[in-house]
Write a structure and sequence with these properties.
Length: about 260
């Protein structure tokens, strides 16, 4: 019964706000004003789910400067959590184009000026890269989940290089951000939110000077290792009495070595 009440409340919150965003979006070129509606929606979603945030490391970044936030991905609740956890920033996502087909939610993504990518079309991917550059030039930060999908077993997947290429081509600093606990409050394949705390760790920005397209491996590995270390730090306290924490919390999938 509680599940249906929660689902109903989420629909009551989501649909009207999405309609407002869709109607106002065409009159807001960069989506900066309607982003405030996104922030309200994310706050309501977390409140309805009984979800709290513990954000650390905000002192590492400047609120007036746009960044490329590289973030691990565990759950669909990661997006509302980041909107609230990084509330001093205007954030836009690079997301798969298929999300635009989701009624109301997908349409609101389009109207909010988030960036969608058709991964099967190289030409469309280049256009998406150009839109991301325009957002950065307007002082908007970009959020990228470099694993490309949610990790369904808790392991950190190999990183794709698109977000790092964007950082190098625009000279934008990368900020590694680590999310822990989101898979516990909204597991993959489920829609029922569970009360709990999501940990968000913000590390120091990583400069991209000296890197160039085709020579990104060192940059990718540096950022990935930072996030992997954060995940390991969070997992270690769970091992007590000689019993190791569950593999889903501690295991890190190592990427295969590739030539840059």
């Amino acid at each position: 019964m509680f599940y249906f009440a929660q689902l109903g409340a989420l629909l009551v919150v989501t649909v009207p706000l999405a309609i407002v965003i869709i109607l106002c979006g065409p009159f807001d070129p960069h989506g900066k004003r309607i982003y405030r509606i996104n922030q309200l929606w994310s706050w309501l979603v977390l409140r309805l789910g009984g979800i709290s945030l513990n954000v650390t490391g905000l002192e590492n970044i400047e609120s007036h400067q746009p960044y490329i936030f590289i973030v691990n991905h565990q759950s669909n609740i990661d997006i509302p959590a980041l909107v609230q956890g990084l509330s001093q920033f205007q954030l836009r996502w690079i997301a798969k184009r298929e999300l635009l087909r989701v009624p109301f939610f997908g349409w609101a993504i389009w109207a909010s000026r988030h960036i969608t990518v058709d991964r099967a079309d190289p030409l469309a991917a280049m256009k998406s890269l150009q839109r991301a550059k325009e957002r950065l030039a307007a002082g908007i930060s970009i959020v990228i989940f470099p694993e490309g999908t949610r990790s369904r077993h808790g392991r950190l997947l190999p990183f794709k290089k698109g977000g790092f290429l964007l950082a190098v081509e625009t000279g934008t600093k990368i900020v590694p951000v680590t999310i822990q606990g989101s898979a516990d409050v909204l597991p993959a394949g489920e829609w029922r939110l569970r009360p709990g705390t999501i940990e968000i760790s913000v590390d120091k920005p990583v400069g991209v000077d000296g890197y160039r397209a085709g020579k990104l491996r060192g940059l990718v590995e540096q950022v990935r290792e930072t996030i992997a270390a954060r995940l390991q730090q969070t997992a270690e306290p769970r091992a007590t009495g000689g019993v190791t924490a569950a593999p889903s919390a501690t295991a890190i999938e190592r990427p295969k070595r590739r030539s840059a």
